[in-house]
Design a protein that fits this description.
Layout lengths: L1 H16 L4 H27 L10 H4 L7 H16 L12 H38 L1
Helix pairs in contact: 2-4, 2-5
Length: 136
Amino acid sequence: MTRARDTKRFFAALLKQSSFRLEIQNLITTFVLLAYLLHVAGCFWNWASEGDIYQYTNWIRSNELEDAGMVRQYIFSVYWAAVTCTTVGYGDILPKNNYELLWAMMIIVFGVAIFAYMLSDLSSKFMELSKERNVN
């Protein structure tokens, strides 16, 4: 998390020095933040599969990914986080134990709230810029 904070400062400074318009900078910032949140949610989703040591059922085994590499499992995890946070939820990757179910419930509530906040924040920034241009 400390590295993420330092990266955020570096990224903000990099965008300020760029020649992108403010709208594009806001859009890039929103997508980078969304990618980071999906990464974290996907990592916790993958980790939740190892939570129940007494039952050997988890989303990785049910999707036959136990022999797949970490990259493939990561891609599936981030995919799950993306469809869950955006409320698309195809239902092809489902929680199979209590730890996965708990994490899925948390990401549904917090992920949707964060995703909605990010979209409304981006929308309000575009509205402010639109009003400024109409005044000038």
